[in-house]
Amino acid sequence: MDDIQRFFFGKNTVHSLSEAEYAQSRNYLDTLRAVSRLTYMSMYVIDYQRKAFEYVSDNPLFLCGHTPQEVTDLGYAFYFRHVSPEDLEMLIKVNETGFNFFDRTPLADRKNYSISYDFSLIHGKEKILVNHKLTPIFITAEGKIWKALCLVSLSAHAASGNIILSKAGEDSFWELHPATWEWHKTEKMKLTERELQMLRLHAQGLPISRIADALFVSVDTVKFHRRKLFEKLQVKNIAEALAYATNNKLF
Predict the structure, then answer these.
(1) What are residue 121's DSSP bridge partners?
(2) Is the dihedral angle over the CA atoms 32, 34, 38, 40 positive or is it negative?
(3) 42-68: per-residue pLDDT in tens?
């Protein structure tokens, strides 16, 4: 229990709630259950007042062989069981640094922010690199996150980290540099129409020859644009490119 308390400190601890704050959360889980039936991503909800998980979807990626109820009952102890010590330390630091950033943002904007980062889940002898996104669902009158929605999917990167804070509707994001634990503002990547066309055709499962036919270009031209796209996204293959573009809403 003492280890679990490392995830919580003053800036993200909710001590009490008003009747109006309780009222806003009625029946919201029905909506989340409906969404979980439509997405491949794992979903769960953190309740910062109870310091627990309130809901865990049955999408298997995050469960590590457990049932949703078992993960719900474990709560933050799940991390200590299925995350390596080095990634666990990173998560605790990301938690603290993220909430410090959140505390400096205007209260009216706080619901528009989300944070994304990668870490490995340990399932038996297998380590699975996942992307984890978190965004507020309910915020208290004093501006603290009461409940947050988390989405877990396979990572498009090769290693843990890749910590990004973004605000809905903005063309820039904040990237956390682990060496200094400082935030740096960066412009969001934009893909050309040709790059988007190629990704959409690859997502349909078309081979390079048919993509070339669809775009009225040569196979060598498709291969050239693919190489440039991989360099731009800093990925190694088309599967990673598709995962990156999907996770970052590029198309």
Answers:
(1) 83, 128
(2) positive
(3) 999 999 999 999 999 999 999 999 999
pLDDT higher than threshold 70 for residue 2: no
pLDDT exceeds cutoff 70 at 202: yes
Return the amino acid letter for 26.
R
Q: State the DSSP H helix or E strand holding residue 186, giving kind and residue range, or none if neither.
A: strand 182-187
DSSP state, 189?
P
* Encoded tokens for 236: 């190694």
Domain boundaries, the chain: 4-187, 193-247
- For residue 12 the two structure tokens come to 């993200």
CATH 2.60.120.280 fits 193-247, yes or no: no
Write the pLDDT tens digit of every residue in 143-186.
Answer: 999 999 999 999 888 899 999 999 998 888 999 988 889 999 98
Q: What is the DSSP letter of 177?
A: E
Question: Looking at the domain covering 4-187, what would its CATH class be?
Answer: alpha beta
Spatial strand order in the sheet of 145-154: 52-56, 42-47, 145-154, 126-139, 113-123, 161-167, 172-177, 182-187
CA dihedral 144, 187, 181, 101 (to 10 degrees): -20
DSSP state of 124: T
